[in-house]
Write a structure and sequence with these properties.
By secondary structure, this protein is α/β, with parallel strands linked by helices. 48% of the residues lie in helices and 14% in strands. It contains 7 helices and 5 strands; from the N terminus they run βαβααβααββαα. The relative contact order is 0.12.
């Protein structure tokens, strides 16, 4: 049996950290402990693509993986190893659950290496509470991202107001996001 790994730092700034190394190590350990051979050609990363805004599905590696699953290019019996379900998706729970269901429905087992949970049709038939657990995990991940998004937007609005009032002259948001017409002189 072969397995693929999928991981993504939540933000580009995390790429310089240990996210990728940690996720890879978890996948290697899980595969070794369970007699799986990692398929390095299917080691997918969406560094810096938002799991909250679904950019990793629309333009990234997870979208390619989902299409490969739909096209039957990922054989049933394969295993997808992710660090946690929040790395698979932080979208609205109904969308995230649909993506997980599509993968599982194609006969692919999804493993969350951080906690060793496994999701497959057989496992969920025996223990349907696993489905509830996955949904609760997806709800929590989405709510965390939604809260962070609101806080970041509020901070940017506050900086804009300060800038307009003349009490702040620094960068508004990330430096690359300031409009070309903004000058910090």
């Amino acid at each position: 049996m072969c397995s693929a790994t999928y991981g993504s730092p939540a933000q580009p700034t995390q790429a310089g950290g240990t996210s990728v190394a940690r996720q890879t190590e978890l996948a290697v350990l899980y595969a070794a402990e369970h007699g799986l051979t990692l398929d390095a050609s299917l080691s997918l990363r969406d560094e810096g693509l938002s799991a909250y805004h679904q950019k990793h599905v629309k333009t990234g590696a997870l979208g390619l993986f989902l299409r490969a699953v739909e096209d039957g290019k990922v054989p049933p019996g394969s295993v997808l190893i992710v660090e946690g379900l929040d790395r698979l998706s932080r979208a609205e729970p109904i969308l995230a659950q649909g993506q997980l269901s599509a993968i599982i429905g194609a006969g692919i087992r999804v493993v969350t290496a951080a906690d060793g949970r496994e999701y497959s049709r057989e496992i969920l038939k025996k223990d349907p509470m696993g489905l509830v657990y996955s949904l609760l995990t997806m709800i929590r991940a989405h709510e965390e991202s939604e809260t962070k998004s609101r806080r970041v937007k509020a901070a940017i609005v506050a900086r804009c107001k300060q800038w307009l009032a003349g009490t702040y002259r620094g960068s508004i948001g990330a430096p690359q996001t300031d409009p070309a017409w903004v000058s910090h002189t």
